[in-house]
Amino acid sequence: MEIELRYAALDDAVEQRVRFAAQALAAHRIRAQASSWDGTQADVVVVNADDGYGRHVMEIARRRGTPVLALGGDPGLEPEAALRPETATVSAIAKSLRELLSRRNGPASALPPPATTQESLGHSPVEKACALTRLATDPQWANVDLEATFQGTTVWLLPRSGRVLSANVGAQLHARAMLGQDGWSFAPLGEHRRANPIGPAAASLDAFYMQGAWTVRSTLPSFPAASASLREWPDLGGAAEIVDALKVVKVLQRGGASPARIRDESGVGEAEVSACLWAFSASGILERRVTAPSKAEPPQGRSARSGLFARLAVHFGLLRH
Description:
By secondary structure, the protein is α/β, with parallel strands linked by helices. It has 12 helices and 12 strands. The strands form 3 sheets. A 5-stranded parallel beta sheet has the order 2-1-3-4-5, sandwiched between helices. Strand 7 (153-158) and strand 8 form a beta hairpin. Mean pLDDT is 80; it is low at 107-128 and 290-312.
């Protein structure tokens, strides 16, 4: 499905998030062409409802029957969808756009079944999988520092140090939003390439995978049913808003657990549990076992029970002192 998306009166940062959200719709087989409002017909419009010009565009779109996602303004006056600017993340915008299109066209036409990244883990070729599942299942990338490229955007994935690097924050956000896509290329980082650093933007690799997996969790395959445990404590300080991830870690903290057991003990949904496990596996901190260990062992590693994530876990009652 192809759509025309227009936006109006957005600042540069929000405009960039809207563009990334439009690209993220590809995971749902929706190809969105995003551009600024030019008065022509569109399938959906995103406006800054706190701006006079944005409200003017919104009125035109409403008269035409075009779905509108309003950022800011008075939520009580918006007939379609509204987000507060502080909650307008890439994933939140993408979700609101999908819901708008679904209400306009019906679920069958707006949201077709997502492309399966792997029909059966261990049977489908690794090349057919999305970036996240490739990194989680292909042994040649296990604990290897990589240069990863997708549609002209390049990031360095550094599991040995637990960091992701990019030329700027925008490139990192784009890469994170596209982790559910195939078509990525990966190459090990040699010493010659390391001599020319990619750029100054750095973040936690665990949080990068977690936020990327969370964005595309509805399209990811179910995680294999084998028991799993954490080798290291995940550094999720940069993804602290995903509280369900803390609940999954709490179960894994007790020792090996299958996805079904994690769902039962954490109360987290199947797609969300799988997203967490795919993210942890891509980071190289998840170990799959045939049987669960008889004795729970707290995970050890670069972030074990320390830093912002541990403090947040204690705050939410998800971590024992």
